[in-house]
């Protein structure tokens, strides 16, 4: 609880552009947003007076950051599962829970869960060899199961030789069929721990120059 405002203190692990936009929204609500930044020059760190410097992968840094926070969340999906589970075990309210975060962290888990739910998605399969890629069919897209974002960890494969260096890296991979891109739509739905939901308007994202 913030002693000055008597409102809950929200702690956000990460200080990127999403944290900065969240900070702007928090100002309008009179809400305190505390951010954990790896560098004082990060986007949210330069505008938020409640910035703590630390490493999101370090459990001790996370423990120190969580002190005084009513709830802890994050602005990216790379926070280790074991670190968040350690905080929860110590009584920290982490939202969303690691069980939900998993599907943003691991594309294999996400695709598997979508298949279980019967949701439409591209044809996909885990691959770890040239023969797996050839059996899947070319051309295709190889994706890192974890650690990828904004085009990082994505490879367009036209021929078996294109996949050799990627496979040799030891990265856990999935292959997906290459889909013709007509448009990209984004839908955001939020749910509170009490089960309240809010759906936001569908938007079309337009990429220019890559």
UniProtKB/TrEMBL annotation:
GO cellular component terms, A-Z: cytosol
UniProt keyword annotations, A-Z: ATP-binding, Nucleotide-binding, Purine biosynthesis
ATP-grasp domain mapped to chain residues: 111-158
GO biological process: purine nucleotide biosynthetic process
Pfam family for this entry, one: ATP-grasp
Domain of life: Bacteria
Pathway linked to the protein: Purine metabolism
One Gene Ontology term of the molecular function aspect: metal ion binding
Protein name according to UniProt: ATP-grasp domain-containing protein
């Amino acid at each position: 609880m913030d002693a000055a405002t008597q409102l809950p203190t929200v702690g956000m692990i990460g200080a990127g552009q999403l944290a900065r936009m969240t900070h702007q929204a928090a100002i309008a609500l009179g809400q305190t947003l505390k951010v954990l930044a790896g560098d004082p020059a990060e986007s949210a760190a330069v505008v938020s007076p409640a910035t703590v410097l630390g490493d999101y992968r370090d459990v001790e840094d996370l423990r120190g950051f969580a002190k005084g926070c009513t709830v802890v969340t994050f602005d990216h999906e790379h926070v280790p599962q074991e670190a968040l589970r350690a905080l929860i075990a110590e009584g920290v309210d982490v939202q969303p829970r690691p069980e939900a975060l998993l599907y943003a962290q691991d594309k294999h888990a996400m695709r598997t869960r979508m298949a279980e739910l019967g949701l439409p998605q591209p044809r996909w399969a885990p691959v770890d060899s040239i023969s797996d890629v050839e059996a899947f069919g070319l051309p295709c897209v190889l994706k890192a199961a974890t650690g990828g974002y904004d085009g990082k960890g994505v490879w367009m494969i036209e021929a078996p030789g294109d996949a050799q260096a990627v496979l040799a890296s030891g990265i856990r991979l999935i292959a997906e069929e290459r889909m013709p891109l007509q448009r990209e739509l984004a839908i955001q739905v939020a749910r509170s721990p009490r089960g309240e939901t809010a759906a936001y308007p569908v938007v079309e994202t337009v990429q220019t120059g890559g």
